[in-house]
Amino acid sequence: MSHGHLYPLPERPARLSLSGAVQGLAAAGVLVGAAALGWAFTQGDATLAWSSYLIGVFFALGLGLFGVAWLAILHLSGGTWSVTMRRIPEAMTAWLVPGGVLALLVVLGVHSLYHWADAEAVAGDALLTHKSPFLNVTMFTALTVASVVLWTLFASIIVGASRRQDADGSVAASRTARTASGAFLVVFALSLSVVAFYFLLSLDAHWFSTMFAVLVFTDVMQTGVAYVALAVSLLVIAGALKGFVNEHHLHSLGKMLFAWTGFWAYIYFCQFMLIWYANIPEETVYFLRRTGDGWLPYVLALPLLKFVVPFLVMIPRGAKRAPGRLIPVAILILVAQFVELYVMVGPAVGHDGAVAHAHLPVVEFAATLGFVGLFTLVFGRALARHDAVPLRDPGLRECLEYQS
Fold first, then answer.
1. Which of 74, 82, 71 shows the shortest CA–CA distance to 253?
2. In the predicted structure, residue 2 carries a pLDDT above the cut 50
3. Judging by beta carbons within 10 Å of its beta carbon (0-12, 13-18, 19+), is residue 236 exposed, middle or buried?
4. Is-above-0.85 flag for pTM?
5. In angstroms, rounded to a whole number, what is the distance separating the alpha carbons of residues 218 and 257?
6. Nearest 10 degrees: CA dihedral of 308, 311, 312, 318?
7. Among candidates 215, 186, 253, which has minimal Cα distance to 402?
8. CA distance 267 to 218
């Protein structure tokens, strides 16, 4: 069954592509990141090198995973307002394979990052011994591989359905994508929790938190929406989506960014409040470690960067409808995500009584720039391979007539 439109469409846009300036900045970021990691390794500081690598690779992996999650949410919710910007999250999923492989390389640095990877430390620690059936390199590798494979499989099904619809206009492709989306979100919730536990929470192997997986989920969604807002805004300014994305579509995208910003603050506060209220030593150690040794300024800056400033800036209606207003907010949130990962990882890399002191995260930031730059180059290549807009999607007419 094919779907046809009985009204004139805007002029068919050319395939989307990143501007030369964006590609140049992305390539420069890759070079800077590679140089920073290379310098850290050659200096013999394996902990700095691998912690920087972990921050960058997890940042980029979250962007790729967001692409599938966002598509699934939009398919299930019937979010036709986003049809004309769907190529953005579809292109983001292209990172899952290279990003998954790069994430798996963290296993090479487990002894520099994770206390539970030290057999002698585990043997002398009752709690680590108790957790050892789950906290071990074999399970780390196996469950990470399984998660990446499942993410890639569902991405290929959902994006593949979109490609088939481009070719034949079949409404059945939308039903396939919707069915796969429902299954994926269940897998997504479970697998992201496992991956977040291994890569980030287990850095503090004695710490307990029932909110951590939800916080990481919120990070992925807030940062992913910020990246989409940045990409769409730049494309709109360049005139690449003229007639297909207007201020109403930007308004809804801006509202999503605004909403995830508020939700992040809620989850971040809830994790702190529950730990403060219960006052259990195995929980409070997380924040105690992050209020001393120079970490407090970063902890205090985080809610300002990730919530207070973007929330206040995004309150006016006009801020959600103007690309020039969305771009700086999106960039701020992306930078704030780096700060949050630095606060998650940095204080936890001191083991055996060693204290991890805060420092200006030059190497960590450079490494993250490298991964984001590489992600952007992969994203841009995937974006340019297909039509700019899914012209045969059944929801296209409703999207074009959308009023926010």
1. 82
2. no
3. buried
4. yes
5. 11
6. 160
7. 253
8. 8
- At a CB cut-off of 8 Å and minimum separation 6, what does 306 contact? 222, 261, 264, 265, 268, 333, 336, 337, 339, 340
Rounded Cα gap, residues 176 and 317, in angstroms: 36
Report the C-alpha gap between 96 and 378 in whole angstroms: 10
Tokens of 367: 């490494």
Which residue carries 């979100």 as its tokens?
185
In the block, tokens 């109403």 appear at: 248
The three state secondary structure string of 86-153 is CHHHHHHHHHHHHHHHHHHHHHHHHHHHCHHHCHHHHHCCHHHHHHCCCCCHHHHHHHHHHHHHHHHH
Where in the chain are the domains? 20-400
Confidence of residue 322 (pLDDT cuts 50, 70, 90): very high
* Among 21, 86, 95, 91, CA closest to 383: 91
Tokens 């910003």, located at residue:
261
Phi, psi torsion values for 99, nearest 5 degrees: -65, -35
Q: pLDDT for 93-125, tens place per residue?
A: 999 999 999 999 999 999 999 999 998 889 988
- The pLDDT tens digits of the residues spanning 361-402 come to 999 999 999 999 999 999 999 999 999 999 999 999 999 999
Contacts of 178 (CB under 8 A, 6+ apart): 75, 76
Q: What pLDDT is recorded for position 170?
A: 85
Cα 354 to Cα 241: distance, rounded to the nearest angstrom: 53
Q: Which amino acid type is present at position 256?
A: M
